[in-house]
Structure formats: structure tokens, C-alpha cells
Design brief:
With about 450 residues, this protein is an alpha+beta fold. The chain has 14 helices and 17 strands. The strands form three sheets. Strands 7, 8, 9, 10, 11, 12, 14, 15 and 16 form a nine-stranded mixed sheet that branches. Strands 1, 2, 3, 4, 5 and 6 form a six-stranded mixed sheet that branches. The protein is globular and about 95 Å long.
Length: about 450
């Protein structure tokens, strides 16, 4: 009797508790989009913001060695060393979702206890490039990341490629996503159904320097955040299903001079590239096989970079060819912006397994090297790269992109200039991280590799 009564009272108390709203405290997440392209970090109570903006959150070198799949597979840092994630106030995201937890986060720099940038910080890799471009050339890079993903909440319906019906079938996702992007401080440009089943693409307005990479991270995380609150996954992996068109991340960029003046376009010159811009683009083209190790940095990336996938196979530059590694984008006579402001180049050898800081940093470092060495482009070929023979491609200076991550890492190692951008510590950590990733999926079928990455991205 008594025991039964006590049990009943306890259950009643618990039921009463269940009816009361749970006590909650606002938490803010501080993270870094690391060398695996995952945002990882720590949360703290919102009341501590002021002190955390100064002292940050504890971090250790081993953290940067977390693999694409989670576990640390190789670690040059051991258990030693203290670092800090210092939130950048300009990256603040505070987005409410009715009836759900909000998204509150800051992106961070990794610094030493003395406040110095840590050599393996991805944001610092980009910052060094952006600052050198300004210092040496008086130029700023303006860029925007176009990101493709699969939203599992839509029906996979045949025949709806780019279709209004495919757009309709994502339900509330698109509207909630575009709203979240805007509230997170990014200007949305377009949201569209893409080529593959349940595939969508989002584009945003261009931003200067570091901010474009911050926005790429924020947009990715808003896609995941909205999908999660609607009960579905957003998948950014480069290949969801073997044999289908994959998810790319395309980086559109242009150069601006003093007072934000566009300096990239000269309609009288080959490819419409100005004298200032030609060596920048030539540098990217020259280093492209090595850059792939930073911009298409996973085993699954190379299951996308294959012929007949609307993805690049050659390290080439072309006008209006969506299979080119570097594409000169069309200028529209009817647009409000003039041609010089519209003119941009699209870098297409990138996907969401790359940290946007490493990818954009690689582009800027390579372009800057082209400027330092006054590199020149070959004359535009008479034929498209697809119509050339292997001999004609060689004569035109067109090389093939790496066919695997292992090959891309070899090309990076062989490119001493590219190695120097990373510096010895970051180069060692990066190569070890990526070689461990190759070992982690060694001997698995292409289908199994796709599934492994689909679970992680």
C-alpha cells in the first residue's frame, strides 16, 4: 500500500514536471570550419559572451586532425599544447526558429595563448592570402560560393530536373532556408531545383575577402539547420548516388582595385580578361592540379570529377563551358550592372568536403603567384577541350586534373610554391590528415565510399 502510494506520488510529481516548460539557458556555439570542412567547436552560456569574445574557448592541436568521419586517425600534435578558438564578432549568427531552438553561433580563429595566429588555422591561411593580395597588388577579391545539396525532405520524382514541380516538392524548406540565410547576415540571390533527384542549389551575393568564405560556411549550416528543424537531412557530399550528377561548390570571383573599382574586364583582350587579371587567372591554371588537393579534398571528390558529369576533368580555362575547370562567365547586355561589374570567373573544381577558407585561400595564393611571376595565358584554342586529341591538348598546355585524392596530394607535394603557402606545419598536418582518410576507405567499393561520405556530409 505505502510503497504503491509513494510510487504513485513520484509518478504524479514527474507528470506535473512534464507539464511545466523545462528551464532553459541560451547557449552560443563557437566553431571553426576545419580541414575536413566540418564546423566543430564548443558552446558557452550566452551571459558569458563578453569574456568569451576576448579569451575564446579552449582548443588543442589534435582537434584539427579530426577526420571527415570523426575519429582522429593520425595526429602529429599528440596530447600537448593549448590553443584558443577566438570568436570573430563579424560572423555572429542569431537566427530564431518558431517553436524550436535558435541557431546562435560565431566562427572563430584558432590562436596561440599569446594571441598569435596558429599556423594550422584555416581562416589564417585565407587571411594571409587576402592581405598579401592587398599589400602587393592593391587588390581585393570579391567572391561568392554557389552550393549544391540534396534535401531528403523532397520526393525524388523523375522528369522534374530544374522543374517547377521539383521546386514545389521541397515544401517550406526553400522559403525557410532563404529567410534563415538573410537573418544570418547573408544576402540570398537564388534558390533552384538542380539536375539530380532532390538536388537544389543556392546562390548568394558576392562578398569581399574573408567574408565570402565565412558566408559559405554560414549558408551551409543554415541549410542543415532548416532541414533538421523540418525533420530531414541536407546532404552536401560530392556524390550521393554513384552514377548521378554530384554536388559541386562553385566559386565565382573577380578583382577590385582602389575604391572597389572592378579591374578584371577588358573586352578587347583574349577571354575578356584585363592585363591585371590575366596573370592572376594564369596562376590558378598553372597550380590547378595541386590546388585540387585543397579544393576537392576527399576520396569521393574524384568520383564526381569524371567525364560526362557536368564536372571538370582538365585543368583548362574556357568561355561559357560548364565542363571547364575555370569558366569565364557571360556578361548580359540587359543587366543593370555594367559589364565590368558583372564580369567574373568561376572556379569549378571544388565541393563541400573542402573548408571554404582552404579553397578560396588556394585560389588567391595561386593567383598572387601568377602576378608575382607575371604568368601569361596561352591564346584561346580554336577547338573546345572536348574536341581536341590528347596531342592537341598537350600543345595547348591543357593538363589533366588528378584522378584521385592520392594523385592530388602527390601533385601538391610536387608543387613547392603551393607547399610554401601552407608552410611546413600546416602542410604536414594536412597531408597526414588526408592520407589517413585514404587509408580509412581503402579497399571499399565506390558505392561503399559514397555511402561513407554521404553519412558524414
Amino acid at each position: 500500500g505505502m510503497a504503491g502510494q509513494r510510487l504513485h506520488d513520484r509518478m504524479q510529481a514527474r507528470a506535473d514536471q512534464g507539464n511545466r516548460p523545462m528551464e532553459k539557458e541560451d547557449l552560443i556555439f563557437v566553431g571553426v570550419c576545419d580541414l575536413s570542412g566540418h564546423v566543430r567547436g564548443k558552446a558557452f552560456p550566452a551571459g558569458d559572451l563578453e569574456s568569451r569574445l576576448r579569451k575564446g574557448m579552449g582548443y588543442t592541436g589534435a582537434n584539427i586532425m579530426m577526420s571527415a568521419f570523426g575519429p582522429i586517425q593520425d595526429n602529429p600534435f599528440g596530447t600537448i599544447g593549448d590553443l584558443a578558438l577566438i570568436p570573430d564578432p563579424s560572423t555572429k549568427v542569431d537566427v530564431e526558429f518558431a517553436g524550436c531552438a535558435p541557431e546562435r553561433l560565431y566562427l572563430a580563429d584558432i590562436r596561440t595563448p599569446a594571441g598569435e595566429p596558429w599556423p594550422c588555422c584555416p581562416r589564417d591561411f585565407l587571411r594571409r592570402a587576402v592581405e598579401a593580395l592587398q599589400r602587393e597588388c592593391g587588390l581585393e577579391i570579391i567572391s561568392a560560393f554557389e552550393q549544391e545539396f540534396v534535401y531528403r525532405g523532397a520526393d525524388a520524382r523523375p522528369g522534374t530536373t530544374y522543374g517547377l514541380d521539383s521546386f514545389r516538392h521541397q515544401g517550406l524548406f526553400g522559403e525557410a532556408f532563404v529567410s534563415a540565410i538573410r537573418r544570418a547576415g547573408v544576402t540570398p540571390d537564388s534558390f533552384l531545383p538542380e539536375y539530380a533527384p532532390r538536388q537544389y542549389e543556392v546562390t548568394v551575393a558576392p562578398a569581399a575577402g574573408m567574408r565570402a568564405a565565412d558566408e559559405a560556411v554560414i549558408v551551409r549550416e543554415m541549410a542543415r539547420a532548416v532541414g533538421f528543424r523540418l525533420g530531414h537531412r541536407v546532404m552536401l557530399t560530392p556524390v550521393v548516388e554513384l552514377g548521378e550528377v554530384g554536388n559541386g561548390t562553385h566559386i565565382h570571383f573577380s578583382l577590385r582595385g582602389a575604391a572597389g573599382r572592378p579591374v578584371m574586364h577588358d573586352p578587347a583582350r583574349p577571354y575578356g580578361l584585363s592585363e591585371v587579371a590575366e596573370p592572376f587567372v594564369a596562376g590558378i591554371l598553372h597550380h590547378l592540379p595541386a590546388l585540387a588537393a585543397l579544393t576537392a579534398p576527399s576520396v569521393v571528390s574524384y568520383l564526381r570529377l569524371r567525364p560526362d558529369r557536368w564536372a571538370p576533368v582538365f585543368a583548362n580555362l574556357a568561355e561559357r563551358d560548364r565542363g571547364a575547370a575555370l569558366r569565364i562567365c557571360a556578361v548580359f547586355e540587359t543587366a543593370l550592372e555594367n559589364a565590368a561589374q558583372q564580369f567574373n570567373v568561376e572556379f569549378r573544381v571544388c565541393d563541400a568536403t573542402a573548408s571554404p577558407y582552404m579553397a578560396l585561400g588556394a585560389i588567391v595564393h595561386a593567383g598572387l603567384d601568377g602576378m608575382r611571376k607575371r604568368m601569361r595565358l596561352e591564346a584561346p584554342p580554336a577547338k573546345t577541350v572536348w574536341d581536341m586529341t590528347e596531342e592537341e591538348r598537350q600543345a595547348a598546355g591543357v593538363t589533366t586534373l588528378p584522378g584521385s585524392l592520392g594523385e592530388a596530394l602527390d601533385r601538391l607535394r610536387a608543387d613547392e610554391t603551393a607547399c610554401s603557402w601552407l608552410g611546413p606545419e600546416l602542410l604536414d598536418a594536412y597531408l597526414r590528415l588526408k592520407l589517413a582518410e585514404i587509408r580509412a576507405v581503402k579497399g571499399q567499393s565506390d558505392e561503399a565510399v559514397c555511402a561513407r561520405y554521404a553519412a558524414a556530409y
